[in-house]
Amino acid sequence: MNNDELKNTAIATQCIQGGYIPGNGEARTMPIVQSTTFKYDKAADLAAAFNLEVPTPMYSRLGNPSLSWLEEKIALMEGGVGALTTASGQAAIFYAVMNITKAGQHILAMTNLYGGTHTLFGSTLPKMGVEVTFVHPEMPAEEMKTYIRPETRCIYCEMLGNPALDVLDLDKMAAIAREAQVPLIVDNTFPTPYLCQPIKHGANIVVHSATKYLDGHAVALGGVIVDGGNFDWNNGKYPELTTPDVDYHGLVYSEAFGPAAYIAKIRAGLLRDVGATMSPFNAFLINLGCETLAVRMQRHSENAQKVAEYLAQHDKVEWVRYPGLKGDPSYELAQKYLPKGCSGVVTFGVKGGAAEAQKVIDSIKLITLVTHVGDLRSHMIHPASTTHRQLDDAAMIEAGVYPNQIRFSVGIEDIDDILADVEQALAQV
Question: CA-CA distance, 351 to 318, in Å (whole number)?
């Protein structure tokens, strides 16, 4: 079975079988092609690779078979026409927006972004001449449209806000983007394609920090950009994709690569020039993680649901956010977009304030304090003093970050052991 045939299979099958397809007598599992360069017999063949006429690799900064197999797998799972791996999730986010944005232009982004993304958009991109406007994702559509300008290049959102855990209304955002004739870029890191495929709901580009659930073991950094192939770049707004590129002797991406023009341009431009490339070994590790993604996301979601229900009735917990909880502000959207589960992150507020929240974290034993989410172990962190500490108080509240908040990445350990550790830690305050 090849990757085209695998499009008709369930995503749990694609997690295991997609991407690398062995031939007769070849390695059954995806190999690590640990080589910086590739041998060619004729000068014309290598020249064709440099001219983007053939997809063969010539140098691992621009492409490597191990990376390509992982890219094929994730594009298959997300329902896209192509994907590009990067050295980290931050690199993927940067490339995704800067592929179609330059100084003097504008991005519309949501307020509830991961702290590192918020800083990228709120601090770094403005230094490069790109203006970013932040709006709350629950803003009414008609009001949100007023923030879109002629120079707006994309709308950027997270499928599940980090750490607010509000579920994105994909239909609303896709409709706004279509009317504005700009692509909708969605960070799908928390749900993963197993729980949600944003492209099927109208998103145009999907990004991942593959470091999180796709890897699932906290051993490999990586990012992924998936091109949905469903945006009309020939609408007059994106000449970088529809007019000749002087760096490639007049090649026009929309003509040469059709629906995959956007992802081809990132590889030929930003990846070539900036070089934040995933290593073949990390691609191998992340591919291994993807093979168990379906079973892990089921268990993460089941455990997180039980943790959320437990915390919701605890007398030392002020509030709990988890989209799977009835009564959660995002519950109805979760039923629509995340019917298989709401992923493994729960956030909650400890009664008292920041000192009490930090006391809980200081008291955990099985659960660990790390700067991470999305691997198979359980972790806690205090976002206000760590991942979002660079934001001022008003921006923190807009991002869904509060002084007494704990972000709890619920692992796949036995649920009774997880709850026992939470209980003894809460007993300390």
Answer: 5
Per-residue pLDDT in tens (0 to 9) along the chain, 429 residues: 999 999 999 999 999 999 999 999 999 999 999 999 999 999 999 999 998 899 899 999 999 999 999 999 999 999 999 999 999 999 999 999 999 999 999 999 999 998 889 999 999 999 999 999 999 999 999 999 999 999 999 999 999 998 889 999 999 999 999 999 999 999 999 999 999 999 999 999 999 999 999 999 999 999 999 999 999 999 999 999 999 999 999 999 999 999 999 999 999 999 999 999 999 999 999 999 999 999 999 999 999 999 999 999 999 999 999 999 999 999 999 999 999 999 999 999 999 999 999 999 999 999 999 999 999 999 999 988 887 766 667 777 676 788 899 999 999 999 999 999 999 999 999
| Spatial distance between the Cα atoms of 408 and 406, rounded to a whole number of angstroms | 6
How far apart are the C-alpha atoms of 245 and 290, rounded to whole Å? 36
Residues found in the chain? 429
Burial (Cβ within 10 Å: 0-12, 13-18, ≥19) of residue 136: middle
Q: Are strands 82-86 and 131-135 parallel, antiparallel or unpaired?
A: unpaired
CA distance 313 to 415: 17
Give the separation between CA 321 and CA 305, rounded to whole angstroms: 11
| Angle ∠(274,280,283) on CA atoms, nearest 5 | 95
- C-alpha span between 96 and 110 (Å, rounded): 16
Helices and strands (H and E) in the chain: how many: 20, 12
Rg (CA), the chain: 22
**Are the CB atoms for 357 and 403 separated by under 8 Å?**
yes
How distant is the alpha carbon of residue 408 from its chain centre? 18
Helix (H, G, I), strand (E, B) or coil at 401: coil
Tell me the H-state helices in 181-292.
Answer: 192-195, 239-242, 253-257, 261-266, 272-274, 280-291
Are the beta carbons of 408 and 348 closer than 8 angstroms? yes
Give one word for 78, left, alpha or beta, with left for phi > 0 and alpha for psi -120 to 50: alpha
Residue 212 CA to residue 227 CA, distance in Å, equals: 20
Report pTM. 0.96
